[in-house]
Amino acid sequence: MKQYNIDILAISKTRWKGVDQETLHHGYVLLYSREDNHHRAAPTNEADDDVKDSFYETLQAVTKDIPKHDVLCVVGDLNAKVGADRKYCPEILGLHGLGQINENGALLVDFTLSNDLVVGGTLFEHKNVHKYTWTSPDGSTRNHIDHFLITRRWRTSLLDARGYRGADAQWDHMLMIAHIQIKLRAQKKTQQDLKKLYDTDKLQD
């Protein structure tokens, strides 16, 4: 994390059970959560429709309770190819996707539309070598199946999103990094707040 200047890191395909947190070296805090004892993940494109529907129903159940004004980011290995054809859904896709959309990609696009998100990895121009996030074991196939989604309202806060081949992740996926810069407006103090701060009631005596 220090090498790539990462503040928040999302890890897919972990094996921790339960709900807990641990403080690691360098002061990083690891949060993990699993409701059952099964090592479940995003279904592959070849999975049964029932499995795919169940996954997105669960994902939707998690996101629906997040306040609309919050910055919502959905990140991870989603096993979905959204493709390079922006005409499919210009509201949420940029000009710089990779490959052809597949069935999982269509499901991801539907979820993204329903929650007013954009697919960050398609928004920025990069060489193809920095777009793909997964390589098959024999090295013959490369796809962009790990994604960073962000609320469309906060689209301008996303400065970049791309894959990094140099990171030693010890698996067949590449590290994907998104750069976000969020400017929050300061809350204006009301007269009531100032009264509490300076205790102006004492001026009456």
TrEMBL record:
<dbReference type="GO" id="GO:0003824">
    <property type="term" value="F:catalytic activity"/>
</dbReference>
<dbReference type="InterPro" id="IPR036691">
    <property type="entry name" value="Endo/exonu/phosph_ase_sf"/>
</dbReference>
<dbReference type="InterPro" id="IPR027124">
    <property type="entry name" value="Swc5/CFDP1/2"/>
</dbReference>
<protein>
    <recommendedName>
        <fullName>Endonuclease/exonuclease/phosphatase domain-containing protein</fullName>
    </recommendedName>
</protein>
